[in-house]
Amino acid sequence: MTPQRRAGLGTNQEAVRRHNLGTLLRHVHGAGQISRAELTSLMGLNRSTIAGLVGELESLGISEHATPMGGARQGAGRPSAGVRIAAGGPYVIAVDLGVDRAVVARVGLGGRVLARAQAPVHSHGEAWQVGASVAALIRQVVEDAPPAAALVGIGISVPGLVRRRDGLVRLAPNLEWHDVSFGGIVLAALGLDVPVSLANDADLGALAEHVRGAGVGVDDLIYVSGNVGVGAGVIAGGVRLEGAGGYAGEVGHLRFNPQGRPCHCGNLGCWETEVGAHAIAEAIDCPPDKVAQLDEVLEGFTEPPRELRATGTALGHGLASIVNTFNPRLIVLGGYFRSLYPLVGAEVDSGLADRALPAPLESVTLVLPALGSDSALLGAAEIALEPLFVDPVAALGAALVDVRSRLAG
Amino acid sequence: MTPQRRAGLGTNQEAVRRHNLGTLLRHVHGAGQISRAELTSLMGLNRSTIAGLVGELESLGISEHATPMGGARQGAGRPSAGVRIAAGGPYVIAVDLGVDRAVVARVGLGGRVLARAQAPVHSHGEAWQVGASVAALIRQVVEDAPPAAALVGIGISVPGLVRRRDGLVRLAPNLEWHDVSFGGIVLAALGLDVPVSLANDADLGALAEHVRGAGVGVDDLIYVSGNVGVGAGVIAGGVRLEGAGGYAGEVGHLRFNPQGRPCHCGNLGCWETEVGAHAIAEAIDCPPDKVAQLDEVLEGFTEPPRELRATGTALGHGLASIVNTFNPRLIVLGGYFRSLYPLVGAEVDSGLADRALPAPLESVTLVLPALGSDSALLGAAEIALEPLFVDPVAALGAALVDVRSRLAG
Lengths: 409, 409
Description:
Chains A, B: It comes from Nocardioides ganghwensis. By secondary structure, chain A is an alpha/beta fold.
């Protein structure tokens, strides 16, 4: 073997080791705390390799030793030592950009929200104004971050179509944005250069519910989000369905009632015109300036209003098209559908049962998000954390420390 | 290291070698003929490992040495020796069960159709009668198979919903089948015990067009098939979208016109009621007994009949829902849509452009299948060949030789 070959082999071994390190971190991140025995079994590596990887994560300040979690899952032997996410370790900034407000959080591994801030957003505000508001919120949430903790990146959830290749917001109808480079705007407002990732809110809701919400362990799920407009995020075979450009899941623009109302997309009777926030607001006489807070308005009802029954049925009929198309195991109803479903669940269920094909219907379940209204926010954290699971060493190398003083400068 | 450990390591190395052997075979199968230099580059293995694997495939009778294909793709050096599928190697039986006829082929690696037979099927025939017809066709196509060639398995394309777990035909509406174990029926009629795989016709059309048709190298494609009913097969991110049970892609039952015609599924105005064969036949006054041969009827038109224009528009409008939902790069129009599109392409295109969102619209292309009417048939061959790409040694070990005399006995 020539020296050149050996060098190549060494580089390959290093790549494998970093890959294993990232995969181990993904397991710790998903579980919050996990025993070495479980890691050994999950990763198919021997105990000494696991011990070496765990030691490296500890020396990077990412994880720490945890007292054993009891012997129940470890069989008769001594409980295995545990690994958990260290306090003061790397973090990301997650941004959930809504139609009327932005929520920003500092989020650590394990999906821990370490700080949170929010502010109203003017729905007709220019992108640079919204970017300045988001930057101000980011300054707030990093205020108390330990100076040594590393900022890995920023993840932003957008209520619109986001091009996967470069994060360009192609269309955010309720913000009236076309082709806005919102990631660049936020970075410019901050004066920082860190990795920034953007994606559609429903796609991120699906991701977060799959990683740590209602869909843990479910490989085929759809997160259907009512957020003024209606969209879906799809996990198929355990993987995010993105489509060629990143635009998959625009189920709000499924044809629903061709004799129906005009949709902002230019068509008549898209599903969104029947179950979108404007249609619901009209049905219950909610004033237009409250449409963006429809979830709160719906939560105010103690009795289901009769006027919402048709909306429930229309929601069920549209979900039937989704069930026939995707054959999901789970549908998670996010956004204001979280508040609508408890009011008209019977109508939704019977609308779905009446219209879906029996074979895919029999295995599907409707649920509410386990992460409440934070699904998209935590999904934004997930995409920003992702580089840590690919190569923690490289991701930390590219991360920023002492962020607060950099922002001040 | 204990002897036990070493044995474990040996087993693992053997598993890796067989995996590599299967992957190499998948490349040869996909390309038909491929140079060793390309295999080295595609698989990231060194030349001597590739040479060893190629030698093993040759000794198994699967591949053979091919003369170099010229130096164009090899740079300035000597053209690399090639590998191609050997004649007389393993084969599968592919069955395309249509509503009015069954096509059966003996198919070798590389997707070579070695023999083919077909016969009418009575659309109201009992499953055992259809099974007997298919078995007779299988006997025909193995008639001339070399006695030493191994039958790896049978793949069957079904116009209906097929449960992935066990291949049960849950519903084949135009055959009037519910919960039919058609694979078992065919094996019983043959008196053979070989692996049999069943899947939906549109799913198999998508697979075949992806492996060796219009969608080679395209990771996000949808094959939309008009085959009395309407269905789709979806490749997303390079992988078949199956859904929780295997039923994904039933786009014929997307809600389309709620004031429309009754659909066999019990709903009103599914997309299938506007662009399915019965609707088209009615529009052009085609007699009901010709509906299953709609492709031939449509091919008989030299001028596009005015009555089909609305169908073209409806096809475009439904495709827009598919584009909004899946954001595919490519839509392959199979079944009788192959014959319809050349007549009303302008209406289909403008219907799609009018209704799809601009972002996913700009990257999608409509094409006809490169495999003509054989997409589903060749897809059935692909699923039957699959065990060879997982572990060629095990698949050949489980395969049957001298099939003709076994069938005679």
